[in-house]
Design a protein that fits this description.
The chain has about 210 residues and is of the alpha+beta class. It is built from seven helices and eight strands; from the N terminus they run ααββαβββααβαββα.
Length: about 210
């Protein structure tokens, strides 16, 4: 944060401030051993910090829900890993997808659609072992998810059984548990089925297909 506060905005040309600011780099070298890059565009750094702040809310809630061990944590990468995997003392697991979508209607760039599809169809070892599945979102995305509840019958074919809000923090992070089923005697889908299901979910949840409560 000290590097971001020292960012030299005065050096940006006034007639192209937005274009320049979006691409200006914040120097991150030698700030912390966990930071694996030398610099990062300012706009991307803000997005990543927002996601990390949501993740901190999730970690605090997870501790209160008796999760006591972090098995994996990848909140700012897009390599297909879950943002957080945690384990309780009894061995039960939880996987979390964390985001910070800003502005209405809460599903910008189909982010919620993507996260739901990922969790519904995931066949990683954690999910195959029966992990509970959660999405942690901004308040506007939490509202978007809540508007799906009356429409869950239309998602039955995709294996969605329910969405249960479990927490909302003071900073507006909404944590929702996803309950799902695989259907009658069906096996977990492979990679090809995952792509198809995410596409079906996106078409199903287009603006206008979800009614407010």
């Amino acid at each position: 944060m000290a590097a971001a506060r020292a960012w030299p905005s005065a050096e940006l040309p006034g007639e192209s401030w937005g274009v320049s600011a979006k691409r200006s780099l914040v120097e991150l070298a030698n700030l912390h051993p966990w930071i694996g890059v030398q610099s990062q565009p300012f706009s991307e750094l803000v997005n990543q910090l927002a996601t990390v702040e949501r993740l901190i809310d999730v970690l605090r809630w997870a501790e209160s829900a008796e999760f006591n061990t972090v098995l994996a944590c990848h909140p700012t990468t897009s390599g297909g890993d879950h943002d957080l995997v945690a384990r309780r003392g009894d061995g039960s697991l939880g996987v979390f997808e964390v985001s910070d979508v800003a502005g209405d209607p809460g599903n910008a760039n189909q982010k919620m659609t993507s996260d739901l599809g990922l969790l519904i169809n995931c066949t990683c070892p954690y999910c195959d072992d029966g992990a509970a599945k959660y999405v942690a979102t901004s308040r506007v995305s939490g509202d978007w998810l809540s508007r799906l509840v009356p429409r869950l019958g239309r998602m039955e074919a995709l294996g969605v059984a329910g969405l249960l809000p479990v927490a909302e923090t003071e900073s507006g992070t909404v944590i929702t548990q996803l309950n799902h089923c695989r259907g009658r005697g069906t096996e977990a889908p492979g990679r090809g089925a995952e792509v198809s299901a995410v596409g079906d979910l996106g078409r199903l949840l287009q603006p206008g297909s979800v009614q407010s409560t």
